[in-house]
Design brief:
- The chain is mainly alpha-helical.
- A five-stranded antiparallel beta sheet has the order 2-3-1-5-4.
C-alpha cells in the first residue's frame, strides 16, 4: 500500500484517503441530515441517553453541533456527494433553529427543553445557513445584546435587561426560562441554583472567537475581540466548554482566516503552542486534535512549517482508515461529567485538512 512519504503524502494515497472519507460521510449522514454528536461519560452514565455502536459513547438528542462543524469545514470541496451532504445538513440546521433565530445544543423540537439556547451553536449554524443562502431568522440583536458591561458575549441566552429593546427578545427569553427552570428544579434546588449560575455567567475566549467570526470585526465585537487578545497574551485563557487550549486557539486561527485581523498578532503564540503539543510522529493527542492542529496552521498560512507536514503525514497514516472512525473529544461540560464528539466529526476534520493540503500541491 502507498504510504505517507517525506513528511507529505504520496498523491495516490492522498486521493484515496479523501475519497474514502467522502464516501464514509455520505453513507453515514441520516436521512434528516443529522450527523450525531455523541457523549462519553467520565462518571456515571446519564439516564437520558441511548447506546451506540461505539462502546461508552452515547446518543443524547438532535444536536446541531457536529452538523454545523462538518458542513462548515467541507463546504469548499467540489464533489457531488459533498454537495448532497451540505444540502441535507443545511436543511437539518434550519429545522432545528428556534422561531427567533437561535439554536440549542439539543433542538427544542426533538425533546423537552432542559437548558437555554446558546450563542456558540447559534453562530455555528447561522454561518452555514448564511453561506449557503438557506432561510434563517436574522435576529442580530439577540446576539449583540447578549453581552456583559465589557462587551464580552455570554455563552447562554438568558433573560437580561440588555435584551429589552429587541424585537420581543426579552419576552421570549422569559418564556423560555419558565420552560426549563422547573425541570432543573425537579432534580434539586442545589442543582437548579448551580446550573442557573452557570447559564448566567459563562463566557470563554474559544466561543467569543466563534461569535467574532460570524459577526465580523466591528464596533459591536471590538471589545470582545480585544479581551480575547489580552487573555492570550497574558496566558489567562479560560477553558470551559472547550477545555483544551488547542481548541480555543483553533477557533482564533479560524477567525483570522475569516477576516478578524486583530487576532493576527497572536499567530506566533498559537503556532508555538501547536509545535509544543506535537509528538515527533506528528500526532497531537489523538487523530481529531491532530487534524485541528493542521487546520490551525493552515488558517494561519503556515503552509511551509514542518509541524504542518508532520501533522498531515500522521493524518494520512492514521489507523482509523483501517479500523474505522471513532468519536474523540472536542467539547465538554464544566463539571467533568462528560465529553462530546462524533465519529463523523473526526472524519470530517481529517477530510478538511487533507483536501486543503491537496489543493496546495503542484499539479
Amino acid at each position: 500500500m502507498e504510504t505517507a512519504v517525506s513528511g507529505g503524502i504520496h498523491p495516490g494515497l492522498l486521493n484515496q484517503r479523501i475519497s474514502a472519507i467522502i464516501d464514509y460521510l455520505h453513507a453515514r449522514q441520516g436521512e434528516d441530515g443529522e450527523f450525531p454528536t455523541l457523549r462519553y461519560f467520565c462518571r456515571e452514565v446519564g439516564d437520558y441517553v441511548t447506546p451506540t455502536e461505539f462502546p461508552e459513547w452515547h446518543h443524547f438528542g438532535k444536536c446541531p453541533f457536529a452538523v454545523a462543524n462538518i458542513v462548515h469545514h467541507i463546504t469548499h470541496i467540489d464533489h457531488p456527494k459533498v454537495r448532497e451532504i451540505v444540502r441535507k445538513g443545511c436543511d437539518y440546521l434550519a429545522r432545528g433553529m428556534e422561531a427567533n433565530g437561535v439554536a440549542r445544543y439539543v433542538a427544542g423540537y426533538a425533546q423537552p427543553v432542559y437548558f437555554p439556547a446558546d450563542i456558540d451553536d447559534t453562530v455555528l449554524a447561522l454561518m452555514v445557513l448564511r453561506q449557503h443562502g438557506s432561510p434563517f431568522v436574522d435576529n442580530r440583536q439577540m446576539l449583540t445584546r447578549n453581552v456583559d458591561r465589557n462587551g464580552r458575549f455570554y455563552t447562554w441566552f438568558m433573560p437580561r435587561w440588555r435584551h429589552a429593546p429587541g424585537p420581543g427578545n426579552l419576552a421570549w427569553l422569559i418564556r423560555d426560562y419558565r420552560t426549563f427552570e422547573p425541570r432543573l428544579r425537579e432534580k434539586s434546588l442545589a442543582y437548579r441554583d448551580h446550573m442557573i449560575k452557570e447559564f448566567r455567567e459563562s463566557m470563554e475566549p474559544g466561543i467569543l472567537a466563534n461569535v467574532a467570526l460570524y459577526l465580523g470585526e466591528n464596533r459591536v465585537t471590538r471589545r470582545a475581540i480585544a479581551s480575547v487578545v489580552a487573555d492570550v497574551e497574558r496566558g489567562t485563557v479560560y477553558l470551559g466548554y472547550y477545555n483544551e487550549l488547542l481548541f480555543a486557539y483553533f477557533h482564533i486561527a479560524r477567525a483570522v482566516a475569516g477576516g478578524i485581523t486583530a487576532f493576527g498578532r497572536l499567530k506566533d503564540r498559537i503556532v508555538a503552542e501547536v509545535v509544543a503539543r506535537q509528538d515527533q510522529d506528528g500526532c497531537v493527542r489523538d487523530g481529531f486534535a491532530t487534524a485541528v492542529a493542521a487546520l490551525t496552521l493552515m488558517d494561519l498560512e503556515c503552509w511551509d512549517h514542518e509541524a504542518l507536514a508532520r501533522a498531515i503525514g500522521r493524518l494520512a497514516d492514521d489507523p482509523m482508515f483501517e479500523s474505522g472512525w471513532v468519536p474523540q473529544h472536542y467539547c465538554n461540560d464544566l463539571d467533568g461529567i462528560f465529553l462530546d464528539g462524533g465519529a463523523e466529526l473526526t472524519a470530517a476534520f481529517f477530510l478538511a485538512a487533507l483536501e486543503r493540503w491537496r489543493e496546495r500541491q503542484p499539479g
